[in-house]
Amino acid sequence: MTTVAITLPRQEPAAESSDSTSYRTLYALLFAIGFALRFGMVLWRRSYSFPPAWIFENLSIATNLATGHGFSSPFNIDTGPSTWIAPAYPFFLATVFKIFGLYSAVSMGVIFGIQCMMAGGTGIAIHALAKRTVGAGIGWWAAWIWTLSPFFFRWPTTWIWDFTVSALLMAVLLILTLDVAESGSTKLWLGLGGLWGLAALTNPALISVLPFTMAYAAYVNRRAGRKWLRGLSLASVLFAAMITPWLIRNEMVFGHFVFLRGNYWFEFHLGNYHYSNGMGFSGKHPTRNPIQLYKYIMLGEQGYIQWAKNDALQFVREYPGEFLNLTIHRVWWFWDGTPLIYESGQWWKPWQFWPLSCGGWLGLLFVLTRRPRGWILLAAPLFIYPVPYYLSYCTSKYRHAIEPELLLLSVYLAYVIWSEIRPILQRVIAWRSASAAQREAEVPA
Known about the structure:
By secondary structure, the chain is an all-alpha fold. Helix content is about 65%, strand content about 0%.
């Protein structure tokens, strides 16, 4: 039986060994159990039996790719080329469809299986991140909670979207950043640039954290007297080389610059209009509203997004106080689970959702004051990543990309509290033992 001792994390990075070979067996166990539990849920829920009503933007574009119609038509009707979502995940789905059949049970099983593998791997990434920052013992607790808790099972087992891979990518990016900062090797710099390129093509919202990772790695290397400019330049060039072909495609197809995912102003419009509740949708999405779908068809995708941008910005100009009020509420709603009240088919109630947010933020307070290695990298996802959602709208699924970090910080909080309480309990126990011994000594023979 393996015993994992939890020790107070020290400030010196050298105190944590970077050699993962001693963890290989436990890592394999984490991965196997995490995958088995999640894929077992896929089989139990029969998620691989996919009803046509669930074929939303991601799958619609993947269908067109697999059938030779290109990256187009996100709403199950022929509307031409699209940049509605980022390209990586639809291309992955299309590859599976081409190999195993369009929406066959085997295809859906493979897709969900790969997502469950990603989620299983995230448990390993959580420990690896903790080992480099707040301590390996804390990492084991967080990794096993991630692996065993059904709270983290939903997205890889029910949704075919980039939520699961985004959580894995965020954790691995932070790990790789810390390794680059530690060694400054050209190979690791290139790996960081390449992984950021993959992340950008998968979920562009992640790249809000990119400047902080690059700046951290460069600063630590510079402070250690190592050459950093060449590595940073190579990483930046590789990142640019990976995303540029998609930017060129968008320029050629649409005749103007479109970033990796072009629908943000539509998302912004969903949450910002006069008398909105700031939650998004409310019948204004083309998948829910035939009038909006007709407008999308008539204006074309770029025209429709431009209309949404103009309409939303007009609202901001005319009702700045209302926009500010909605934004302030969305900041709170992102973390407390209020959107769950307005969404059907949710696994959790708000009271089950907010404790992870609360634990993560309180844990971050201790990280900011005690400053273990890489503390700023644990802070950046919580401060920066949600900002686009604060301005547009928020739902529970958007938080998942940073839930590994929230969980790690929550366990760190629990450990810090326990480390403060334990000496007090030990003194109380010692005092009671001494008192009992004294009373026994005073009893006449």
